[in-house]
Amino acid sequence: MATPTHEAAVASGLGASVTRNQLALVTADVVECRRCPRLVAWRERVASQKVARFADDEYWGRPVPGSGDPDARILIVGLAPAAHGGNRTGRIFTGDASADFLFPALYGAGLSNSGVSRRRDDGLRLIDTYIAAVNRCAPPDNKPTPVERDNCLPYLEREIAALERVRVIVALGAYAWDGTLRALASLGHVRRPRPRFAHGAEAQIGPYTMIGSFHPSQQNTFTGRLTRPMLDAVFARAVEIAGIRARGRAARAGGDAPDGRGPEGSPKRRPRPVRSSSAGAGSDRARG
Predict the structure, then answer these.
(1) Which DSSP state fits 284?
(2) Using N-to-C axis directions, what is the helix angle for 228-242 and 97-108, rounded to 10°?
(3) pLDDT-based confidence at 253, cuts 50/70/90?
(4) DSSP assignment, residue 74?
(5) What is the rounded CA–CA span in Å between residue 146 and residue 228?
(6) More confident of the two residues 257 and 170
(7) Is 219 helix (H, G, I), strand (E, B) or coil?
């Protein structure tokens, strides 16, 4: 039986269910993946040899799928799960310092119903937003190999294809920027010359607007390389480009938009691009 086209699905009211089914298939494949022996060994070793502060936790210890709103118009892409964050909790950007910095910004932009991301069952709900990563297993030293990256990219490609309402992709860090460009190229969306990563950089790639942001790792946030106002400006810009109305977000969240923020109340000014320096490039190699 042929899969409905996007137009036919929308016209028949099946669009959301088709997207959910496609994302469920990707999730099922991700969590069973064992393509990269080095990453399988590492994620399982971390899960069995727990750090003291999480000694009583049951670690996920498997690849971490994307999660969020199937009707998302904004896709956020990170590097990979953190060893004691996503690899422990089973949800990207959950239970670690990067999550503690990222989610207050998402909440402030009206893109989540909470500014706290601690566990898979914490009631957190993303609004008009989906979060994924280039790599789905926690890598040693925060550094997947090129082969491991290429093994994992088809999952991101499938998620982008399934998320048919997405118009804005926020890449957290240079690695996510590069991986997203590769995924989009595989889907037939190529931009020449190849856009360079910078915080606040924007690039139109086919039907998508990419926005770059420094990764919310402790290496970036503790040094002031990435500040909360910088991240707020990125998500305000993403909301503006995606055309998300504050009232619509509030209704889907089940209450008022946090702090009344939205395109009407958020800064319209485009973030000023901040280029990565060679000294700071490594600080983008952090995970969620």
Answers:
(1) G
(2) 50
(3) low
(4) E
(5) 31
(6) 170
(7) helix
pLDDT at residue 179 greater than cutoff 50: yes
**What's the pLDDT score for residue 52?**
93
- Domain ranges in the chain are 15-284
Tokens of 130: 């989906």
Cβ(77)–Cβ(163) below 8 Å: no
Q: CA-CA distance, 152 to 2, in Å (whole number)?
A: 27
Instruction: Please give the radius of gyration of the chain, using alpha carbons only, rounded to the nearest integer.
Output: 18
Q: Which residues pair with 131 in a beta bridge?
A: 67, 76
Q: Name residues whose C-beta falls within 8 Å of residue 248's C-beta, 6 or more positions apart in sequence.
A: 128
4 confidence band (pLDDT: 50, 70, 90): very low
Mean pLDDT of 135-146: 96
Strands (E) across the chain are located at 67-68, 74-78, 129-133, 168-172, 198-199, 202-205, 208-213, 274-275
Amino acid at site 64: V
Confidence check: pLDDT of 37 > 70: yes
SS3 43: helix
Supply the pLDDT for residue 270: 61
What separation in angstroms does the CA of 110 have from each of 120, 138, 288? 20, 29, 20
Q: Considering only the top CATH level, what class is 15-284?
A: alpha beta
Kindly report whether the global pTM for this prediction surpasses the value 0.70: yes
Rounded distance between C-alpha atoms, residue 116 and residue 122, angstroms: 9
- Between CA 208 and CA 216 the distance in angstroms is 23
CB 92 within 8 A of CB 191: no
Task: Give the span between the Cα atoms of 221 and 288, in whole angstroms.
Answer: 13
pLDDT value at 160 more than 90: yes
